[in-house]
Design goal:
There is one protein chain. The chain contains 9 helices and 11 strands. Helix 3 packs parallel to helix 4 and helix 3 runs parallel beside helix 6. It has about 300 residues and is α+β, with helices and mostly antiparallel strands. A 6-stranded mixed β-sheet has the order 1-2-3-6-4-5. The chain has 2 domains: about 150 residues, 60s Ribosomal Protein L30, Chain: A (2-Layer Sandwich); about 120 residues, Phosphoribosyl-aminoimidazole Synthetase, Chain A, domain 2, CATH 3.90.650.
Length: about 300
């Protein structure tokens, strides 16, 4: 059996069964971030590692500054999904020996600029030669207050589903210059009870099923309400990925208050109710065209 026969989600299910977790682990593998206990009982330690690979997350010849920006912002988008505050980062660069030094310097300028936006300190990492392609791995450590932690696992039947921003068309440019929704996420958990949340990196068609599986619920989507980027199609919004917007579930009773307060706080960022969570059943479960699934894009 090859990786292409499994796909990313089934591969992770296979690997994660082998892991032994300590009692201090609050949220382990399979969510946007790992969350563990720390000495300060009011807070939890949050950890995330992510990567960008040439030919998968960026094309050969892409501006190095943009690659560095994306390499830092991808794990920070997962921090937004957890409503966590990032603090420190480690960066590992794997590059062929013929890579231009000027390109690597540009890469680190992009990493530093992205980290500075959220006051993240780059405190170390690793470099290694490789036959190719170029790959950059970024690990981030931070914290979240115990009463503001969110994961994919708390969705309830009857909850409303919301997305921030607009979906689709990110591959034309946005995927290289996006800003994670950390500010918005922190505001949400300060003012509302968010039951479940994740970031949309692989597309609604891949990520929404992950959220409902983690929460053991079903879902109903009102397709006509999906907030499309100008020029994007509904299929782009569902399947393309790289949007890095927030998808979250909360009680229906908070809908009106949320929409009123959001409009005042973030007047330039749309917030759209796209559907709801339902009881898990084959009757209610609605399949979406799949989003981006690693190891299976050529099948």
């Amino acid at each position: 059996m090859k990786l292409g026969d499994l796909g990313e989600d089934r591969l992770l299910d296979l690997l994660l069964r082998c892991l032994s977790l300590k009692n201090a682990v609050v949220v382990g593998p399979g969510d946007d971030c790992a969350v563990v206990e720390m000495h300060d009982r009011r807070k939890l330690l949050v950890l995330k590692s992510d990567c960008v690979v040439e030919g998968v997350h960026f094309l050969q010849g892409t501006n190095a500054l943009d690659v560095g920006w994306k390499a830092m912002m991808r794990p920070l988008s997962d921090f937004a999904a957890t409503s966590a505050v990032p603090q420190f980062a480690l960066v590992t660069l794997m590059a062929p020996e013929q890579t231009e030094v000027a390109w690597v310097k540009g890469l680190y300028r992009g990493l530093r600029r992205a980290a500075k936006l959220f006051e993240v300190g780059i405190v170390g990492g690793e470099t290694s030669s490789t036959p190719g392609p170029i790959a950059v791995s970024t690990s981030v450590v931070g914290f979240v207050e115990r009463d503001r932690r969110v994961s994919r696992r708390g969705g309830k039947a009857g909850d409303d589903l919301f997305v921030t921003g607009r979906l689709g068309g990110a591959l034309k440019r946005k995927h290289l210059r996006f800003i994670p929704r950390i500010v918005e996420s922190r505001w949400l958990t300060k003012n509302f009870s968010i039951h479940a949340m994740m970031d949309l990196s692989d597309g609604l068609g891949a990520d929404l099923p992950r959220l409902v599986r983690a929460s053991n619920v079903g879902f109903k989507i009102e397709m006509e309400k999906l907030p499309l980027t100008r020029g994007a199609t509904m299929n782009d919004a569902i399947s393309e990925g790289e949007d890095y917007e927030l998808l979250f579930a909360m009680s229906r009773s908070d809908r009106i208050r949320l929409q009123q307060r959001w409009t005042k706080k973030f007047p330039n960022l749309p917030l759209t109710r796209i559907g709801s969570l339902s009881q898990l059943s084959t009757k209610d479960y609605q399949l979406l065209p799949r989003g981006y699934v690693h190891f299976q894009q050529s099948s």
